[in-house]
């Protein structure tokens, strides 16, 4: 069995779940389309806890996403294919999506780069973020807009980028200076007396 046929078969196994368990389709659509807003809300909540640890974590997550997106665009130049619904018959397509290069999955890049960054700093609830990233990856296959290879590549790029930024960002003094300047300005507008958890 060729690699191409194998990942088509894996795609079918996941995508066909939407035909077997149609009652779960609204959940899959919600996760695939709207969990992005929950992720953004999480970043805002962490940022406005106003602790150095959380703010450095959010900065690292943002930088990891940028790096992963750049790597993803480079990967997309080396290997391309369209979405499953554009290439295969009888795909259970549950959301609207433009036909373009499906490799790698941008949603998966976004969630893994940010959620792994959260997990690296906050292990306790970090597992929940990792679980969310995995659910989003599977949902993109379930709704018919990505092959397994797309989400696997997106996850790998997100993980590698998060690990690299986690290791390198705290060593860059420029980032700490910018954060200190921001917090100084913020303190003038929204003063807070007790600050714990320095970065």
Outline the biggest β-sheet: none
SSE succession? HHHHHHHHH
N- and C-termini, Cα separation:
51 Å
Write down the domain tally: 1
H/I helix tally = 9
Q: What is the residue-averaged pLDDT?
A: 90
Per CATH, the superfamily is Phosphatidic acid phosphatase type 2/haloperoxidase
From the 3D structure, determine the CATH topology. Vanadium-containing Chloroperoxidase, domain 1
Note poorly predicted spans.
none
Number of strands: 0
Mind telling me which CATH architecture this is?
A: Up-down Bundle
Taken from the alpha-carbon principal axes, the silhouette is: elongated
Oligomer: single chain
Binned, the helix content reads over 70%
Which structural category fits the helices and strands? mainly alpha
Keywords: Membrane, Transmembrane, Transmembrane helix
InterPro entries: PAP2/HPO (IPR000326), PAP2/HPO_sf (IPR036938), UPP_Pase (IPR033879)
Pfam families: PAP2
Protein name: Undecaprenyl-diphosphatase
Summarize the structure.
This protein is 73% helix and 0% strand.
Descriptive tags:
single chain; 199 residues; mainly alpha; Vanadium-containing Chloroperoxidase, domain 1; 9 helices; elongated; transmembrane
Describe the structure.
This is Undecaprenyl-diphosphatase. InterPro entries: PAP2/HPO, PAP2/HPO_sf, UPP_Pase. Keywords: Membrane, Transmembrane, Transmembrane helix. Pfam families: PAP2. It comes from Paenibacillus profundus. By secondary structure, the protein is mainly α. It has a single domain, classed as Vanadium-containing Chloroperoxidase, domain 1. Helix content is 73%, strand content 0%. Helix 4 packs across helix 8 and helix 6 packs parallel to helix 8. It is elongated, with a radius of gyration of 19 Å.
